[in-house]
Specification:
Length: 246
Amino acid sequence: MFPTVSLGPLVLPTAGLVYIIGAWVVLSVIERSAKAIGLDAEATYGLAAISLVAGFIGSRLVFVISHWPAYQSNIIGIFWPLTSGYTPWAGFLFAIAAAILFGRAKRLPLGPTLDALTPGLLITLITVSLADFLAGPGYGIQTAVPWRINVFGIGRHAVQFYEIIVAVIALIVWWAAYRHYRYDGRLFLMATAVYAGGRLFIDAFRANSPLTASGYHTIQIMSLIILLICVFLLGRMVATDNVPSN
């Protein structure tokens, strides 16, 4: 909808600007949350930074490999421009792998580290949704509701804003819970359950959501699985808390 923004003589891609600003905010928030939880803030910041870089490189690398004929005669195109041409799932896997390796090397505890990373992860999702709204291909199904937005002259659900609202609610849950629970991964599970539950509902309003061969929304299936896993693990933690110690 707003693919570029003009700053004097410069015309810059809005998605790129959103991602750059978002990365700075994510790293700053993670550093602060690590300090609040009592983790090694420098190591946690490093883990987040390495994961972001690995995710970016991995996402671009897999896209280039998948579309190699288009780049074979244009090697410079691999490195510039970088405004498009990424494989999100590959970036996610590369980021997770980098986080695991770095976390093990720095001996960061799993549960508290996940709790400290949660605000940054949610802000990352907000950044992706905002970039998708400004310059991405995402759009909602056609509707006549009063809060619809016009996309190429057609009233549609503002699914990206729905996603942002869900992420903000999950952030509020994290903020409300972090003073009252142990930092053993519960904050991560709570916030993740809230976000997954929200995406399970709102993805029904996205018009270009990826579908299975049977016509089911892939993101809804993944959200349901993640929600059930989070609820199960939280239930086990609560049950463990209620077991009397000898």
